[in-house]
């Protein structure tokens, strides 16, 4: 199997209400069954009228831009300076919610398409029904990523092609099971297409030819048979934040840890469970961390239990003991251990340590 | 410009000491000047002998695998269960330091190439000098990424092609400057090549034809002229962790925040600077957060200053006041504000708040 990637030139300016299928087939009359059409999200947004006018240059323009981004933001993931990495309402994590001022006149910004998978399906269906081309469609956009400089194009939407190429259940030629191998093929198609699209050449569409697509076994529409659409990009490629090891920026997560320390409840919301043996070593480490960093203000006694209890006693420095008790609780929370505290004013505090389920 | 992507089949098993240039040219005698050769890192590792034998299946094998990963790890970025996302000694952030058990017999694991850019340069130079092919070389590997399911291939090394295609300084056709647009073209080439390589077909090499490479203006080697090698992938694509908003996993950064709360020094290491007006609102918010979450144990008075000072006084509950003072300091640290604390035992604590440079 070899692939060819063709730029589609001559599409020209796309305006709200434009008929993209017509524009594409006119520019690429050679479009053929089995091709994958990779379409820059920007021309879909423009055709959908997802343009927002900006005030004249100046502070009002910057404020308006920030408001537009806020409207497209479901959750801020990380911020530094004027950079905002956010999750959009679709779930994509990207800078400025994908709101973009390039390749549009300077008095507008362009929003992402409302439903990129839906737009891909509609374009695919129209190309089949009206132009008798059975193609797959990938809607692409440009994104940065953690850890690596430079941008790459990835998919925002897809139709007629499964976003993941699933190798799970297969074995390599040594017989090793490929347990983790799901390639995000639509992202790779978007990246491949960008190699011929460029950013300034006015080439918003490319065609990838030669990829084996699923057989055309779907219902006929106007005489053209289409496969049923597999689940889209949003459904398959957007990871649930709860499953993500990087759901928040480092500075934001660190601040969340500091806020958690500020608001540790005296009694944890869940019952404390008996500590595994390894955790008793963590308790001793936490006590050493706190007593090592503070002036000696108290005597500390650890009872292994269960329950494991740390007792702090101070004759003359109750404020410092109270502070150190809270330091200890924060250190234990950092190690994943939950605590309950009792203050026996003015000289003794008891910290009960448990495994938080 | 259109591209073609060809798989290189028939390379067969690669063993330590193998002559990759010879294997590739034999399998792809059609390799031509200007082609980009995308080579899976695994066959480079195998040719370099970067294979580590494992003990017989069982707990010892798992321990050995963990030790091998630790040896390839410069820094652990995130961990959950048995998953380890680490920075390798090259600086790549990836699962298990790229140590892989697929496409190798089950008694070995494969390490990443020691110097993927160097390996790319050597392969390129050998292909030029001995086989008279002037090509670019990209060394690829498969990685996961935050926020999106599925894996994509990216570049670990490159020669004869700049890793970034730089659009900065150009303008789009509306005259907007493209200030941020640096496409990681070698990553996109790796992704494109994977579309024809697959994971189980024994196709470790692909050729991308049609990309305009730099003119061959470098020094002649054995009669073949090569361009000087631009900086490699490690130098250009690996982001400095200090510049990265996601240098640590969310759980790890949150734990670091809790640990920071446990170890706040009584006096910050840097001089406190006068608070900007906006920060005074943060101070009031932090006081409200702490006094709202704790039982009323003290009177709190905020003096705007400079310096801004929060005074807590308690007649009968000094332990709780000490604890609440530390909660307050953690809340202020979460807002980016540094504090110094003085305990006037047993009833009064003074927290001085400053902007930390």
From TrEMBL, chains A, B:
<keyword id="KW-0630">Potassium</keyword>
<dbReference type="Pfam" id="PF01996">
    <property type="entry name" value="F420_ligase"/>
</dbReference>
<feature type="domain" description="Coenzyme F420:L-glutamate ligase-like">
    <location>
        <begin position="12"/>
        <end position="210"/>
    </location>
</feature>
<keyword id="KW-0342">GTP-binding</keyword>
<keyword id="KW-0479">Metal-binding</keyword>
<dbReference type="InterPro" id="IPR002847">
    <property type="entry name" value="F420-0_gamma-glut_ligase-dom"/>
</dbReference>
<keyword id="KW-0436">Ligase</keyword>
<keyword id="KW-0547">Nucleotide-binding</keyword>
<keyword id="KW-0460">Magnesium</keyword>
<dbReference type="GO" id="GO:0046872">
    <property type="term" value="F:metal ion binding"/>
</dbReference>
<dbReference type="GO" id="GO:0052618">
    <property type="term" value="F:coenzyme F420-0:L-glutamate ligase activity"/>
</dbReference>
<dbReference type="InterPro" id="IPR008225">
    <property type="entry name" value="F420-0_g-glutamyl_ligase"/>
</dbReference>
<keyword id="KW-0464">Manganese</keyword>
<protein>
    <submittedName>
        <fullName>Coenzyme F420-0:L-glutamate ligase</fullName>
        <ecNumber>6.3.2.31</ecNumber>
    </submittedName>
</protein>
<dbReference type="GO" id="GO:0005525">
    <property type="term" value="F:GTP binding"/>
</dbReference>
């Amino acid at each position: 199997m070899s692939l060819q990637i063709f730029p589609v030139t001559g599409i020209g300016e796309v305006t709200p209400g434009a008929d993209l299928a017509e524009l594409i087939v006119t520019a690429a009359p050679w479009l053929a069954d089995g091709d994958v059409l990779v379409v820059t999200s920007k021309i879909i947004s423009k055709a959908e009228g997802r343009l927002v006018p900006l005030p004249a240059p100046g502070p009002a323009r910057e404020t308006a831009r920030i408001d537009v981004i806020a409207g497209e933001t479901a959750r801020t993931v990380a911020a530094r300076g004027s950079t905002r990495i956010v999750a959009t309402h679709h779930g994509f994590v990207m800078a400025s919610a994908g709101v973009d001022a390039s390749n549009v006149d300077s008095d507008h910004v362009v929003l992402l398409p409302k439903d990129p998978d839906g737009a891909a399906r509609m374009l695919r269906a129209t190309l089949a029904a009206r132009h008798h081309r059975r193609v797959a469609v990938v809607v692409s956009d440009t994104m940065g990523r953690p850890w690596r400089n430079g941008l790459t194009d990835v998919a925002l939407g897809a139709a007629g092609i499964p976003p993941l190429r699933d190798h799970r259940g297969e074995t390599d030629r040594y017989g090793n099971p490929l347990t983790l191998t799901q390639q995000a093929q639509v992202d790779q198609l978007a990246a491949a297409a960008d190699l011929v699209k460029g950013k300034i050449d006015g080439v918003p569409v490319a065609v990838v030819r030669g990829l084996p697509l699923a057989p055309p076994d779907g219902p006929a529409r106007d005489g053209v048979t289409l496969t049923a659409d597999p689940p889209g990009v949003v459904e398959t490629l957007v990871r649930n934040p709860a499953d993500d090891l990087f759901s928040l920026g480092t500075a934001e997560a660190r601040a969340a840890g500091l806020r958690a320390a500020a608001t540790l409840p005296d009694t944890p919301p869940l019952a404390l469970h008996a500590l595994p043996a390894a955790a008793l070593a963590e308790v001793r480490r936490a006590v050493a961390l706190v007593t090592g960093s503070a002036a000696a203000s108290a005597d500390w006694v650890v009872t292994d239990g269960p329950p494991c209890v740390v007792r702090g006693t101070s004759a003359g420095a109750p404020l410092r003991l109270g502070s150190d008790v809270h330091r200890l609780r924060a250190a234990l929370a950092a190690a994943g251990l939950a605590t309950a505290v009792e203050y026996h004013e003015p000289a003794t505090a008891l910290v009960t340590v448990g495994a938080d389920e």
